[in-house]
Amino acid sequence: MTKNWKDKKDSFPIVDVRDLQNNFLPMILHKAKQVKLNNGICVVQSFEPKPLYSALEDLGFEYLTEKISENEYRVYFYRNEVKKITFESGSDMPFKPTAIVNYKTIDDVLAGTVVDFWELIWDKEEPAIDMKTKLLLSMSNAIGASRFRQATRELIKAYSIGASVEEFDELFSLFAWNQGIGYFSSEVGPSTVFGAYKHIKKREKEGIERKVILAELMDVFGYKNPDVNTFFKK
Fold it and tell me: What is the pTM for the complete model shown?
């Protein structure tokens, strides 16, 4: 990063999301996609918004972070390249870590700590375990703990970066083996994660391409689904 643009960062339009209590990441990504080459945007948050870094880097942005106070971070994003991101590349993986906003409701320092932990687990440079394997492990752990909301999200993310139906077949067979037929029948079978798996398997048998299936998954099992979303809705 050359940062040869930092002298004009104060002219970047500001997006202040400190008071937002809902999912602000899609909104920022939408605004970032509208930024033209050699222009920028400034995001203001009460904790360091590290999940944005890799997401906007995949769109062709460099960034510069300034800590103004304990409750104010300003991140300047400058677009020096226009990149097209896709599910297949992993760059536009669905389900960003939006639940971090829930911790901000409690305490900004707590939110910052959670972000640091997220970065260690999910955004580590040169990890020993590849992302698809991490997601399948996380999905398996979630099902073992009856966290079907999380499991659904992990399954869809894993599918978005190349997990196959055959891998899911073997995983669900293992769930039946390890947790027992009774538990699988009464708890796993009716769950959203099993519903997402069945949808993938059915649509692939029909010859539908992965990109279309992903769009369908996000429509049925995405943020608007109360059994998958991480935000409380009245």
Answer: 0.79
